[in-house]
Design brief:
This protein is of the alpha+beta class and 121 residues long. 29% of the residues lie in helices and 21% in strands. Bound molecules: adenosine monophosphate (AMP).
């Protein structure tokens, strides 16, 4: 079940503010409040999808394609395409997802370092 009280749902409903980077009919991109890189954006679809699995299973093909273009347009707006960036999606307990509305992180603005995993041996 999707939780309508989650913070990104409230951002979509404009009940709480955010620093908008880019917006279209499929999604909204804004700056992460606790950035982990010089540029840290979040891109969220305009629909009730709690995670990646929900989005892929429940969104229409138009929404799935459109949302990927929302991400690409955000990359364009941020001006980070040529220097590079990392896209990241957390899901569930092991993935460390905190907000139960599907979102894609864009990390950029400098080298974002190697991928790490706290419990990798
Ligand atoms: P995740 O761990 O993938 O669920 O990431 C959630 C992200 O949302 C974290 O990077 C938080 O810093 C960010 N975040 C939480 N609340 C807000 C908010 N009100 N505005 C912008 N970003 C937020």
């Amino acid at each position: 079940m999707y939780d309508d009280a989650n913070i990104f749902s409230k951002i979509l409903k404009k009940e709480i503010p955010c620093r908008v980077i880019y917006e279209d009919v499929f999604g909204l991109a804004f700056h992460d409040i606790n950035p982990k890189a010089p540029i840290h954006a979040l891109v969220i679809p305009k629909g009730k999808f709690k995670n990646f699995d929900d989005f892929v299973k429940l969104a229409t093909p138009d929404m799935i394609v459109g949302f990927h273009k929302t991400i690409e347009n955000t990359i364009e707006t941020l001006g980070v395409r040529s220097e590079g960036y990392r896209l990241l999606v957390n899901s569930g307990l092991n993935g460390g997802q905190e907000v139960p509305h599907f979102h894609v992180h864009i990390l950029a603005g400098g080298p974002v370092g190697p991928m790490t995993c706290a419990h990798h041996h």
